[in-house]
Amino acid sequence: IVYIDQVDNVAYIVTNAHVVVSKYVRNYLVRYVNSIGNYQVNKAELINLDIQSDLALLRVSGDFLAEVSLGNSASLKLNSPIYSISSPGFIENNSFLHGHFIGRSKNSELRKEISALFLSLPNAPGASGGGIYDQSGLLIGVVRAIMAVDGTPFTPLTYAIAVEKVNDFLKASAPCMADSSQSCLLPSKPANNQNK
Fold this sequence. Notes:
By secondary structure, the protein is mainly β. 10% of the residues lie in helices and 40% in strands. The protein is built from two helices and eleven strands. Mean pLDDT is 78; it is low at 188-196.
């Protein structure tokens, strides 16, 4: 959760676009810990999507515990300890993992537009959209992908979108967050009707 509107009891959650974009998915359910520490599931609404950056913003109503604070991935040094909190598909509860920062790329092989963080972090399929945190608990990235190794549920290398990209996306989404009736999603293109 990156922002909580306490007046309207609405939270905004950043995840990956590839997690929410599917011709089969129309309703989004979000499982989270509420303000008294219990798991809760509520329906969420997709309000912004950036395919190039692989980021999506969901809005969900409910009673929330806390929002994250954004850090600065540029301050990471080689072998800096990092932590991941995610919910891989086959794990019922959240997973909490420890690893190290091993590098960055402004021209990632995954997507040239993404400033990627490379992490020595054993993650599992389904971890996409989970947060990456520094030692102070500040969000420094969002899990984008893992390097798959056949036959093993956890893989040793994780790619993450740097928090600076997340912050740019949130700034672009600000009008939608200020007016809860608004969506930043672009409308579908109208059919090309040419009069002859």
